[in-house]
Amino acid sequence: MSENTPGSSPADRPTRAINGLDTSTGSQQAPAHDAPAAQTAGRVTAARDAGRRFSRVSEEQWGYDPAEVDDFLDRVDAVLLTTSGDLRSAPGVSSRQVRERVFDRVQGGYDSAPVDARLDELEDQLADHERDAFIHEHGPQRWEEHLELLGQTLLGRLNRPHGERFRQPSQRKQLGYSVADVDVLCDRLTEHFRSDEDLDPSLVRKAVFRQAQGQRCYEEQQVDAFLDRAVELILALR
Which residue from 34, 56, 165, 208 has the fewest beta carbons nearer than 10 Å? Predict the structure, then answer.
């Protein structure tokens, strides 16, 4: 995201490695979906109680609209309470939709930092559910194929030369993300994906890019879409 925006292997690796990207996951067994309802409800209730009392900014400052935040989190929690199968069937509450959720800003609203932290937790939880549901329905082999395809797509762009990884804005004076800043992050992602290191999704979630113009910038929308897919892969590989 832009900092001016309010709130932003080696060749001998296993065969499931994609140009050095190991897509193997920690468990290859189809997950169980018969956890006691009380246990699930307890976890969600605890999360809800811990996450509803967000601090507010002062009346002169701008924060997230409390009504929008509470309504969205209520819907997510309701799905987590009642859905034990494929969460992709529940509109508006997939991990991607949590990641992409944007709230209006009002004076005296919720402080964005704790809200964003809660959304990150929910995204992680939903991503785990979605992975388990996919493996349960389609099997681990199909999941491996999904990760391989996603990894190839991301590495295809990461392997491009500096300054050529993303489009530049169509209008010369249009602002975009600094090419230098975005390329630094892309280099770090490439290094992590080709190593055995666990990658923290906050590396991408909290990325901040300076704004630039002309040939010194990338189109923001395309960069954001790529970073969303990068987070998706990072969560899937855990």
Answer: 34
